[in-house]
Design brief:
alpha+beta; 3-stranded antiparallel beta sheet; 59% helix
């Protein structure tokens, strides 16, 4: 089992590659497709659903109850391929099960996935296009340690199959479990080093296996058959760079080819390989007689034009056939047609030229009738279209009129609301003015109470209680003034005047002490006050005498 992974930005390009042949619009190499966690059943539209989920990931987070914050999703597309050995023949169910298992190992079992099986290789393999954004939570899978997870999953899959096909993978996974970092060492370079004792021998041993000794930027490197530059010091266990330099001392390093020249020599060697030439010739013989189809390029504008043209032609043909049937029915119902259906007389002998002219004239008349009928049909269609436009225009006009009337009603309502607010403002200003007047009256009454003698405590308490009740009544919220013009009830000024009169009546009207008043009640009150003051002076003098103690005379 071989696994390969790759992340990308675009779902469309990956889907186009998986669902079509290489460089063409055909899909002959696609054996079957399968969808996971997608609402659509069309594989060609699955990438649109994935792209929509990736673009609206923030909204999905908010709907799931999470925060819209997070790192920007740069590469939401994830491409994974699973390849079996040549001698393995898994069926569709087994391949889908393997794909679901590896998705579960990576934590992508709930993500939108497109399975595509190709048959263009000798070995069986499938491709998985996965959306890294969860369609429920809107969070993107980080694919942490995905290569290690895929390696362990492939090893377990081979264990379950009963045959280990990659021993090196088992060794690397065991080293990782022990905390060691595995390192890949090329066995060809190690074998060539062990079999050689000089630089020339080492170069010859590498050339036997297709490797080339080349001159790199800083050191001598080895080019493998695939054109990859390898540092020999990292491939030889226990060998240092100084040891390599000492063994290659018999070589002139300046004459070694550089990396680009070594790649070019390897390509030329592969082209001159007789075995590969024979295989290429056999392939060319098999392909004899088969013309290679050019790549089909999809032209959207041309497709739309052809589609519109076909619709117009079909409509014209249908209209012509209908007009022909109507003309035929009218001819069948006409009196001349019925007269022709009666037994005719013996035909007269006519020259052949005249008969041909009459047949041509009949065909012309039929064509002209069909043309006229088609013209009338077009006129009816144009008239129906004109009536439809008129109805639409009338409906639009009525809608605009209704909207204008509604706007006018809203304007009048706004004017009424402004008038009501203005009336409320005036009433509030008037109430504030009356409140100010009442406050002045209250201050006058308090001033009157302040100058009254404290002789009659019960009367003073009664006045204070009356004043407190009036304050409590005044502190209660007032009812808002009614904006209606025909409202009943006394105005605010009249209510205030009545309340003031009631309060004055409760406390009684009395003049200040400094004002001249010769009423008997006032004289009686003054005498009582003088008596009370005299008694209080005598009491205070007695109290002072007691505080001083007994006199010395005694």
């Amino acid at each position: 089992m071989i696994t390969k992974q790759q992340t990308g930005r675009s779902f469309k390009s990956a889907s186009e590659y998986l669902l079509h042949d290489k460089g063409a619009r055909t899909s002959e190499r696609v054996e079957w497709v399968h969808l996971e966690n997608c609402d659509t059943t069309n594989a060609a539209r699955a990438y649109k659903e994935m792209a929509f989920s990736a673009m609206h990931a923030q909204d999905l987070k908010e709907q799931a109850g999470g925060s819209r914050q997070g790192r920007k999703q740069e590469k939401p597309s994830f491409h994974l391929s699973l390849s079996w050995a040549k001698d393995e023949e898994p069926d569709r169910a087994e391949m889908i099960g393997a794909g679901q298992s590896v998705l579960q190992r990576l934590g992508l079992e709930k993500h939108q996935t497109l399975f595509v099986c190709h048959n263009d290789q000798e070995h069986r393999h499938i491709h998985l296009l996965v959306n890294r954004v969860d369609p429920e939570t809107g969070k993107m899978n980080t694919l942490s340690h995905s290569k290690r997870s895929l390696s362990s999953w492939a090893m377990e899959y081979e264990f379950n199959q009963g045959k280990i096909r990659c021993e090196k993978r088992v060794e690397n996974n065991r080293a990782l479990e022990q905390g060691k970092k595995p390192r890949h060492r090329d066995a060809v370079i190690q074998d060539a080093w062990e079999r050689s004792d000089s630089g020339r021998a080492f170069q010859a041993a590498l050339a036997e296996r297709g490797y080339v000794l080349a001159r790199g930027n800083k050191r001598v490197v080895v080019m493998d058959p695939h054109g990859k530059a390898i540092n020999p010091a990292r491939q030889l266990y226990g060998v240092k760079a100084a040891d390599i330099k000492a063994r290659l001392s018999d070589l002139d390093l300046t004459r070694l080819p550089d990396v680009e020249q070594a790649k070019q020599r390897q390509q030329e060697g592969r082209q001159d390989d007789p075995k590969q030439q024979q295989e290429r010739k056999q392939g060319e013989k098999k392909a004899v007689g088969k013309e290679k189809e050019p790549d089909q390029v999809y032209d959207r504008d041309r497709h739309n034009q052809d589609w519109e043209k076909s619709i117009i032609e079909a409509a014209i043909a249908k209209e012509e056939s209908r007009a022909g049937r109507e003309a035929f029915n009218r001819k069948a119902k006409s009196p001349k047609r019925r007269a022709r259906s009666k037994p005719a007389k013996e035909p007269e002998t006519r020259p052949p030229g005249e008969t041909q002219r009459e047949s041509k004239t009949g065909e012309d008349r039929e064509r002209s009738a069909l043309a006229q009928e088609f013209q009338r049909s077009l006129s009816r269609i144009a008239e129906a279209s004109r009536q439809q436009r008129q109805r639409l225009a009338e409906g639009s006009r009525r809608t605009l009129q209704a909207a204008a009337s509604r706007i006018r009603r809203l304007g009048s309502f706004a004017d009424q609301l402004d008038a009501q607010r203005e009336a409320e403002a005036k009433a509030q200003a008037e109430a504030d003015r009356k409140e100010k007047i009442f406050g002045q009256q209250r201050r006058n009454i308090e001033e009157t109470l302040k100058h009254r003698p404290p002789a009659d405590k019960q009367e003073r308490k009664r006045l204070e209680d009356a004043l407190r009740d009036e304050d409590k009544r005044r502190s209660q919220p007032r009812e808002p003034p009614s904006p209606a013009p025909g409202s009943q009830g006394p105005p605010v000024q009249e209510k205030r005047s009545r309340s003031v009169e009631a309060f004055r009546k409760a406390i009684g009207e009395r003049s200040r002490p400094d004002t001249p008043d010769s009423s008997p009640a006032n004289d009686d009150h003054k005498s009582k006050v003088e008596d009370f003051r005299e008694k209080m002076r005598e009491r205070r003098s007695r109290d002072r005498g007691k505080d001083r103690g007994p006199s010395r005379e005694r």
